[in-house]
Amino acid sequence: MPSQGPNSPDNGTGTSWTNPANVTANDDTPATFTVPASGNSERHFSADFDFAIPGTATPVGIKARLRHKGEVADVIQDAEVYLSKNGSASVGDNHAEGNTIGDTYAYREYGGPTDLWGTTWSPSELNAVTLSVIVRYTNNDSVDRVVSLDHVDLEVTYEDIVNGSGTSIGCARCSGAGIPAIMGTGTSKGAAVNNAPLTTLPAAVKGTAIGAARDTGTANAIGPITGKSVGAARPSASWSACSTSSRAPPSELLATRPSSSGPAFCTARQSAAGGRSTLALPAGGRRRGSAWGLR
After folding, report:
1. Residue 30 pLDDT exceeds 70
2. Residue 13 sits in which domain range?
3. Who is most buried in 180, 220, 271, 274, counting CB within 10 A?
């Protein structure tokens, strides 16, 4: 699954913290707090992680890392580790483990690629400047002790059915009757939507062997499609499959698939009322046959 990060924050704040903004890099120049004996620190907020999660994505996991140390080993522990959407209020689960930290800098991880911290997230919430990591520490010693927080970062894992990457890709979503399958093989890419509530495809689908199809009840346009062997098909709401009767399209030009070979470009649309459909060819293209409607 795609991910972004780990990203560092652009700033840090915290009441009574010294140099609270010093959490943006792993550089041994920390934000610090003197935690009272048998007491707690104030909350520290690390914010604005510069994510650019696609709007089509579904977040599935968030991992935070804290690089910190105590003045002495095994007396300072994490009391709160939360995320915030608005930069002030914590949301979801407290991921503090309640374990003490050492007296040398080390990263500790919280959450993970399948952990949403007990809440839901949208791409816009993760991309916002107010996305924050909140941390608070407890001192178990009988004297005051200093905690040093040197660096914070976040990594987001997400699913995205539209924007994929790689050398062998197929993206499809289907429901009901209609186009049976769209697949990508080798270095090809395919994008398909077969679902009435969805009204648009990506603006452009490109590659060396591409199929793009939509089977909806509305006459929505399919975006530009380019490549060496390309087909785009959309049946009407009342049509679900090509017939095998004498009026069916030839095998090399079915309404559910592109031409199987050659540089032919075709766009076929089955008519609900029957009759011959149009076949559009760009300059330099070759006609691969005719597509026929069925009553």
Report:
1. yes
2. 3-159
3. 271
